[in-house]
Amino acid sequence: MIQSISIHNVASFDPSGVQITDFKKVNFIYGANGSGKTTISNLVASPNSDDYKKCTISWQNGIPLKTLVYNKQFRDINFGRGKIEGVFTLGQATKADIERIKQKQEELVGLKAEGIKRRETQKKQEEKNTSLESMFKEEVWKKIYKIYEIHFKEAFKGLITKERFKQKLLLEYEANKSPLLAIDTL
Q1: CA 155, CA 158: separation in Å to the nearest integer?
Q2: For residue 29, with 0-12 CB atoms within 10 Å meaning exposed, 13-18 middle and 19 or more buried, which class applies?
Q3: Which pLDDT score is estimated for 83?
Q4: Is residue 43 within 8 Å of 67, Cβ to Cβ?
Q5: Which residue, 64, 60, 53, 90, is CA-closest to 75?
Q6: Alpha-helix runs per DSSP H in 32-161
Q7: Measured CA distances, 122 to 92, 103, 114, 132 (Å)
Q8: Which end of the chain is more exposed for a tag (fewer CB within 10 A), N or C?
Q9: Cβ neighbours of residue 54 under 8 Å, at least 6 residues apart?
Q10: Predicted confidence pLDDT, tens digits, the chain (186 residues)
Q11: At what angle do helices 95-140 and 162-175 cross, to 10 degrees?
C-alpha cells in the first residue's frame, strides 16, 4: 500500500511541492480544476516516467504493488472517446474492438447507401422492362393479330387477349425451329 506521495516541480506543483500521507487501500482524489488530480493519478500510474523525476512514492515495507488508476488517460487508452462527452464503454471491449466496431458501422452506412442505389437502378430497369413489354404487346397486337386475325382465325383461337397473344409469340419464337414461310405461301 502507498504510505506517502511527494510531488515537486511538475504541472501545477511548484518546487516546494506537496506531501500527501494517510492513504487507504482504495483512494479517491478530487478537487478543483488545475489542482493536480491528474498529475497525482499519472504519477501513481507511471512513477518511472521522466515527467516525475522530482517525485517519489513511498510504499509500505518498501514493496511497490500493482496500481490501478482510473483516470482520463486510462479511459483514452483502453476505451477511446465516445461520441458523447463522458460516455465510454466498459467490459471486455478494448479500444481496438471499439475502433473495429466504428469501422464496421461506417462500412454498414456505405453498404446501405450502395443497396439503396442498386434498388433504385433495379426499379428503373423494371419500369423500363415493363414499358418495353407493354410497347411490344401493343405492336404485335396491332401489326400481327389485328391484320391477320381473319386469315388465321383457327390458329389464333384461345389467344384473344393481348397478353396471351404476346406470350404465345414469345413461346413460339423460343421453341419453334421450323423455317419461316412468307405470308403469301401460308
Answers
A1: 9
A2: middle
A3: 54
A4: no
A5: 90
A6: 37-45, 72-78, 95-140, 146-148
A7: 43, 28, 12, 15
A8: C
A9: 7, 8, 9, 10, 17
A10: 899 999 998 988 999 989 999 888 888 888 899 888 889 999 998 899 998 988 999 998 888 888 888 888 877 776 666 554 554 555 556 777 778 888 999 999 999 999 999 999 999 999 999 999 999 999 999 998 898 888 888 888 888 899 999 999 999 889 988 887 777 776
A11: 100
Please give the grid coordinates belonging to residue 35.
489542482
Q: How far apart are CA 39 and CA 63, in angstroms?
A: 22
